[in-house]
Amino acid sequence: xxxxxxxxxxxxxxxxxxxxxxxxxxxxxxxxxxxxxxxxxxxxxxxxxxxxxxxxxxxxxxxxxxxxxxxxxxxxxxxxxxxxxxxxxxxxxxxxxxxxxxxxxxxxxxxxxxxxxxxxxxxxxxxxxxxxxxxxxxxxxxxxxxxxxxxxxxxxxxxxxxxxxxxxxxxxxxxxxxxxxxxxxxxxxxxxxxxxxxxxxxxxxxxxxxxxxxxxxxxxxxxxxxxxxxxxxxxxxxxxxxxxxxxxxxxxxxxxxxxxxxxxxxxxxxxxxxxxxxxxxxxxxxxxxxxxxxxxxxxxxxxxxxxxxxxxxxxxxxxxxxxxxxxxxxxxxxxxxxxxxxxxxxxxxxxxxxxxxxxxxxxxxxxxxxxxxxxxxxxxxxxxxxxxxxxxxxxxxxxxxxxxxxxxxxxxxxxxxxxxxxxxxxxxxxxxxxxxxxxxxxxxxxxxxxxxxxxxxxxxxxxxxxxxxxxxxxxxxxxxxxxxxxxxxxxxxxxxxxxxxxxxx
Length: 505
What we know:
single chain; mainly alpha; Serine Threonine Protein Phosphatase 5, Tetratricopeptide repeat; 21 helices; 48% helix; 4% strand
């Protein structure tokens, strides 16, 4: 990161003509502009904000590695393929040179985006009159602060601990960078780092109070500052509800269970009241006559999703390839899906749309996940979507906190709300394999994280949190279970260690 920040400190933000941020850059930007020109106008700040989202969609960040590729392979129930890279990731060979290239690129991509965020934040504070509408300036700054917290938080969990116990707060974690300059940021303890992160989040939530996603933006703002539609489609950018959902994630990370559950429930209640999400229609999805009209990522349930240009080319390479000579693909093991995740003893295999009923397609003796189905004829509102925060995660945070207490009724209530919208006809039968032991409840919650979030990165963090708390699954692939048990943080890049960083685990 030190080397990365030194390289980035005085670079202009690249503004590529990519379809992102509601096509904003495609319509307004050229290839690259100087800082002086970029930050001299309101539209320049809009372009710079969109440039942050483009950076987040990089293949070494949320566009692939942090979501459906490296993080996913490292925990997921995927069949072994030809690829030596796949095999090394699945076996957690972090010192393998092929894997090291990936994890170091993941580190650099995160800090590159953080540097861009800090640059825009610096310019907003330095030029307060350029974006003259106070509400709009607050929204921009709130988005950026929440994004800075979000990216740092994922880096903390990928390269460090995924949940803290009492003795962990004084351990050191990844640097939390808040300044746009060439000076290296000191490494801090989890306690100090969380104080910075939570300060960013609290400020962001306060600044986003008038977010149009809440339905309470003033008429003046909507008619004037938003006359160009820049603040429409808030589910495609960081927003008020997404920032509050991130706070629930952080509280769960702190192991502050009551507060995490309360924060998650608050998001559920407030987002529902504002109409900020809509559950998918499972029955309509299964009856669709074309893949091109199915909302594969459940985008209507997203509080925040990223629009990633080039997603199709990436998924064509790793998910939807034709398995020619030497090719590999992210295939879910058929027996594991049939017997463990979607066991017909507890639910009809024709019901849950997350499994073989819809989203897992039989191919080459395995299942191919269709979550990231994309092509040029796919419905434009669904295309190129990578979910960042979905409402179902808030229900599972409530369920996970309840599992810690052995509260089966609360676990059933939270998970039941999700599966009722996944095509499950008999929700009570869905829980016949559960018991009142904490271990069994954790096993149930973990299985839900996998079914609900494969390909999104969320189940990777949940696996590292939960796998040591739950009992062995019924009919489980013991080799896969062993890999989950051995899952650990990615190592710091070599040059970070050479600068004196140390990784406390």
